[in-house]
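Practice problem: predict the structure.
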Amino acid sequence: MRVIVWLAILLIFAVGFVLILRHKNAPTAPAGRRAGAGGTVALTTATAKKGDIGVYVDAIGTVTPVYTTSLTAQVTGVITQVHYREGQIVKKGDPLVEIDARPYIATLQQAQGTLERDQNVLAQAEMDLARYRDAWAKNAIPKQTLDDQEKLVLQDQGTVKLDQGQVQFDQVQVDFCHITSPISGRVGLRLVDPGNLVVANATTPLVVVTQLQPTTVIFTIPEDSLGQVQPHLHQKAALAVTAFDRAGQQQIGAGTLISLDTLIDTTTGTVKARALFNNRDNALYPNQFVNTRLLVNTQHNATLIPTSTIQHNGTSSFVYVLDLENKVAHMRSVTPGVVDGNTTAVTGVNPGDVLANSSFDKLQDNSKIVVSNTPAASSSSGSTAP
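Answer:
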């Protein structure tokens, strides 16, 4: 009898142990999904709007000044003065560096003296020629004497021209001693000091001047985008180019596209483009890397929604359209189009539709919802139409 009782007890314990194991191993749905299926989902919303959205070509560019001048010595001499300060903004014609001009001034005076002497010799020969012509007209001298005097005048004229050229050359040498800025811009770090000896045609620059206003940005665009860009250039239409910082968050300049390069780079399949920026605030620094956005087209009267409202399932995209009267979310397929920042143009929803903008891990088709905020506009990056 005791054996039967013990067997019954063991059987009861075995059955209970099996039931406990089954309960622990049973699959459970995520908490969010269980709440969505059986409860109300709290979410935030956004409203689809009608407006305009730009079609952009994004690229990385480099700030490239219109002019960068490296001034080197054209004459040999000792630097007597450095007029500029490091980082100074200079205008065209401002003095920068002075080289000792005394040897060149002396040479210039010698050339000027030689010119004055030969000019007077020419004047004397011309007077004699006039006398010989009058005498030959009266048969007072032979024709050979007159011809010789005419050729002598021509020789003296050539000598005067030679002297004039020497004077101009020496004047240029003196001018080379007074180095001025050929452009308006910013001076770089000082490279020479008073007392330094500089040599003509040396490769070491005396000063570097870089134009800041206006400036340009050179960037590359894919060759596939040429069909969108070239028609506007042929029509001489201004295409807007916006420059952003390295992070692509802060706008630092706005300009226009002025030209494309003549050749496509076959190794990258891209073509260089140059955009002009007025750079009045000097936010664009020479050789700075920037992110550029080239506006190639504008879509009008598009349906715009926040990009964050779009969900993806493989290759298909969908949103949750909210029935605020019945407090229900309905899944609806959409086709995304142009993306501009946080805004996307789509087809499949209508302007004014209220969309779910959060709690996607809990939402399902026909889920009960409760709105926890006031419906927001689609985005500030697209311009809405009334």
